[in-house]
TrEMBL record, chain A:
InterPro entries: Acetalactate_synth_ssu, Acetolactate_synth/TF_NikR_C, Acetolactate_synth_ssu_C, ACT-like_dom_sf, ACT_dom, AHAS_ACT, AHAS_small-like_ACT. It catalyses: 2 pyruvate + H(+) = (2S)-2-acetolactate + CO2. This is Acetolactate synthase small subunit. It comes from the Bacteria. Keywords: Amino-acid biosynthesis, Branched-chain amino acid biosynthesis, Transferase. Catalyzes the conversion of 2 pyruvate molecules into acetolactate in the first common step of the biosynthetic pathway of the branched-amino acids such as leucine, isoleucine, and valine. One of its GO terms (cellular component) is cytosol. Pathway: Amino-acid biosynthesis; L-isoleucine biosynthesis; L-isoleucine from 2-oxobutanoate: step 1/4; Amino-acid biosynthesis; L-valine biosynthesis; L-valine from pyruvate: step 1/4. Dimer of large and small chains. One of its GO terms (biological process) is L-valine biosynthetic process. It comes from Magnetospirillum aberrantis SpK. Its EC number is 2.2.1.6. GO terms for molecular function: acetolactate synthase activity; acetolactate synthase regulator activity. Belongs to the acetolactate synthase small subunit family.
TrEMBL record, chain B:
Pathway: Amino-acid biosynthesis; L-isoleucine biosynthesis; L-isoleucine from 2-oxobutanoate: step 1/4; Amino-acid biosynthesis; L-valine biosynthesis; L-valine from pyruvate: step 1/4. This is Acetolactate synthase. Its cofactor is thiamine diphosphate; Mg(2+). It catalyses: 2 pyruvate + H(+) = (2S)-2-acetolactate + CO2. It is an enzyme of class 2 (transferase). Binds 1 thiamine pyrophosphate per subunit. Binds 1 Mg(2+) ion per subunit. Residues 196-333 form the Thiamine pyrophosphate enzyme central domain. One of its GO terms (cellular component) is acetolactate synthase complex. Residues 8-122 form the Thiamine pyrophosphate enzyme N-terminal TPP-binding domain.
Length: 171, 588
């Protein structure tokens, strides 16, 4: 009997692609066209000489769907390598957020104190506001933003997740 | 000043096409491609077939590609010319047909300005091509064309679109021959030997095996079909083919169970349901084949051979997958099989075959004959009997006539059956036949058609007449969109909502108006004469056969049902049961 594993899993997938026009649209179109989820997607050129970009995608789905996602990505002509960091050994992942807090008085002091605990940097300050730069795993960034909510949280900009395998091996 | 070796973009394009082995282009001129057409005027290496609608150009290129195994080539202008190709490109993507479609584009300086006849065709066709390119520099043009052909024909074939802004084809640049272009796109062709060894282990243990063959074997080429036939005959296994796989294994061979799936044969579907080992070669577990997924071949182990890793475990989980080209894998499979001198369980195999013969004896394609009204199945049986000595190329449109053709024609060779399987494009067959006839000028090419589908691209009759392509259009005219009518009768309480066309042209007069030959048959006694005359005429023919409007296509697996829940005919009681949409995939 054909059995479909139903449990939903979260996977972080690294994709090495040619840095050419339309490549990001191809990847995103694949996800929307086939109804896959994207929780986070980041992209930037990582090799100027070879003109390669690296895309990090955090996605969710059943085992069968995640397998499909990887195979569909591999099928795209400008895609060189697809690596499922979640299953291929240990990896580290980070996210950066810029968090604007607008407040005065005690709230402002408290925001600074928490920022200190989270090792967030102040990268802009006025008499009524701070912009914090916080780096860490997604839940750390989430926690920081949550704590800022009652302290005058005004604006958030996040990079999304970047990830890399631990140890000497490269993608 | 231009260097001596430099050519203009249009010259580079045509040179690249010639170097890629292109002989025929199906196309339609317009503003953005005028420089290319001007260059075409000055040469005679490339033949151009002037279609009447760009969609037909793509289907014609598909017909050309399917019947030759080469890459089909299309040239159209920007904007509407380009957007008209979308249905054809999607059709080619679904059925894995290698095409290169060249579209004109407004000059690079105008891109994004909503210029006259501008369409973002690389954006529009991203999901319906295997890959596409926008060439912005004439010095990349030759390389891009060579790569486009490489991508179109390598791995799982598919359509590739190359968008050429007008200024790029007008400016001067350097030509690069194919030998100087190295593509990074290299799909895996050799199968993993360990997996093949394991496949042989599984095959050796099988008691109720079946080989399930898809279009991938035909795409791989005649060698793959030969090897498949060798493998099936060597093992004595039953072999069923998908709609796309017809012709990969000789249809008249007793080991062939015919087509499987929604309108497949009783024996093929029950053998799929009852098998203990399924060997899928180049098929993709399409929903029209599997029926309800959670009741699909419930007692079987499954081996899946496919060149596209994303086809593995997409719809159905398999026990063993071998990724690679069918010909390579079958060759290795046969080699390992022979080296190991595998002994099958002959007794089990014999018992399995006697069960299959029992199903076969139900004669599921049987139909009520009539001497008053033309039964569509009768017309197709006569067409098959009276043309098979000519080894005809058959194309179809989409609907009942397509399924009847698939059931009643037997294909002994690959590349002789062209039908829109994945997308189900009405209007495919006539232009596809045009492409086939272009590639095989002396062959008998028949478009088995319905009166509704025919009218979706009938303007191409003019193309046939202009280019002296003697395609025979064999219309089973039942005055209805037959398959829509059938579903409305069986599933929607007989409410024939908009499926009856009250007005049709007089097809005989229509043929005359185009300069083709029109023939008509209204009773069974006229069918043979019509077919003989149709074959004898050396011009395009529209044959209008007035068939029984109430005939339904059986066997049928109703939507949401399983292989063992087939409806065999109008008298079958299981018709009263409604289809299930609860478990597994909801089928449309």
């Amino acid at each position: 009997m054909t059995h479909i594993a139903e449990a939903i899993e979260r996977h972080t997938i690294a994709v090495l692609v040619d840095n050419e026009a339309g490549v990001l649209a191809r990847v995103i179109g694949l996800f929307s066209g086939r109804g896959y989820n994207i929780e986070s997607l980041t992209v930037a050129e990582v090799d100027n000489r070879e003109q390669l970009s690296r895309i990090t995608i955090v996605t969710t789905g059943t085992k069968m769907i995640v397998e499909q996602i990887k195979n569909q990505l591999r099928r795209l002509v400008p895609v060189h390598k697809v690596s499922d960091l979640t299953i291929e050994g240990a990896h580290v992942s980070r996210e950066l957020a810029l968090v604007k807090v607008a407040s005065t008085g005690e709230k402002r002091v408290e925001a600074l104190r928490i920022a200190d605990i989270f090792r967030a940097n102040v990268i802009d300050a006025t008499n009524e506001s701070f912009v914090f730069e916080v780096v860490g795993a997604t839940d750390k960034v989430d926690a920081f933003i949550r704590l800022m909510e009652p302290l005058g949280l005004a604006d958030v900009s996040r990079t999304g997740v970047v990830a890399i395998a631990r140890g000497p091996a490269a993608l | 000043m231009a260097h001596q070796d430099t050519l203009n973009g249009a010259e580079i394009l045509l040179k690249a096409l010639v170097d890629q082995g292109v002989e025929v282009i199906f196309g339609y001129p317009g503003g953005a491609v005028l420089p290319i057409y001007d260059e075409m005027f000055k040469q005679n290496r490339l033949r151009h077939i002037l279609v009447r609608h760009e969609q037909a150009a793509v289907h014609a290129a598909e017909g050309y590609a399917r019947s030759t195994g080469k890459v089909g080539c299309v040239l159209v202008t920007s904007g509407p010319g380009a957007t008209n190709t979308v249905t054809g490109l999607t059709d080619a993507l679904m059925d894995s047909i290698p095409l290169v479609c060249i579209t004109g584009q407004v000059p690079t300086s105008l891109i994004g300005n909503d210029a006259f006849q501008e369409a973002d065709i690389t954006g529009i066709t991203r999901p319906c091509t295997k890959h596409n390119y926008l060439v912005k520099d004439v010095n990349n043009l030759a390389k891009t064309i060579h790569e486009a052909f490489h991508v179109a024909r390598s791995g799982r074939p598919g359509p590739v679109l190359v968008d050429l802004p007008k200024d790029v084809v007008q400016s001067k640049g350097e030509y690069q021959p194919p030998s100087r272009v190295k593509s990074k796109y290299k799909p895996q062709v050799k199968g993993d030997l360990k997996a093949i060894e394991k496949a042989v282990d599984m095959i050796a243990k099988a008691k109720r095996p079946i080989v399930y063959v898809g279009g991938g074997v035909i795409n791989s080429g005649p060698a793959a079909c030969q090897l498949l036939t060798q493998f099936v005959r060597m093992t004595g296994f039953p072999c069923t083919q998908t709609l796309m796989g017809l012709g990969a294994f000789p249809g008249s061979d007793p080991l062939s169970l015919g087509m499987l799936g929604m309108h497949g044969t009783f024996e093929a579907n029950l053998a799929m349901h009852g098998c203990d080992l399924m060997i899928n070669v180049g098929a993709r577990f399409d929903d029209r084949v599997t029926g309800r997924v959670n009741a699909f071949a419930p007692y079987s182990k499954k081996i899946h051979i496919d060149i596209d890793p994303s086809s593995i475990n997409k719809n159905v989980l398999v026990d063993l997958s071998v990724v690679g080209d069918a010909a390579h894998i079958l060759e290795d499979l046969i080699k390992v099989w022979k080296a190991r001198q595998v002994r099958m369980d002959d007794k089990a195999l014999k018992a399995w075959w006697s069960e299959i013969e029992g199903w076969r004896s139900r004669n599921c394609l049987h139909f009520e004959t009539s001497n008053k009204i033309i039964k569509p199945q009768y017309a197709l049986q006569r067409l098959y009997e009276l043309t098979k000595h000519k080894n005809p190329y058959i194309t179809t449109e989409v609907g009942q006539h397509q399924m009847w053709a698939a059931q009643h024609f037997k294909f002994e060779q690959p590349n002789h059956w062209m039908t829109s399987g994945g997308l189900g494009t009405m209007g495919y067959g006539l232009p596809a036949a045009m492409g086939v006839q272009t590639a095989h000028p002396d062959a008998l090419v028949i478009d088995i058609s319905g009166e509704s589908s025919f009218q979706m691209n009938l303007q191409e009759m003019a193309t046939l007449c202009q280019h002296r392509l003697p395609v025979k259009v064999f219309i089973l005219n039942n005055q209805y969109m037959g398959m829509v009518r059938q579903w409305q009768e069986l599933i929607h309480g007989g409410r024939y909502s908009e499926s009856h066309m009250h007005t049709h042209p007089d097809f005989v007069k229509l043929a005359d108006a185009f300069g083709a030959v029109g023939l008509r048959a209204e009773s069974p006694g006229e069918v043979d004469d019509l077919i003989k005359e149709m074959i004898a005429v050396d011009r395009p023919v529209i044959a209008d056969l007035r068939t029984d409007a109430s005939e339904n296509c059986f066997p049928m697996i109703m939507p949401g049902m399983a292989h063992n829940e087939m409806v065999l005919g109008p008298e079958d009681r299981s018709l009263d049961k409604p289809g299930s949409e609860e478990d597994g995939m909801v089928l449309v």
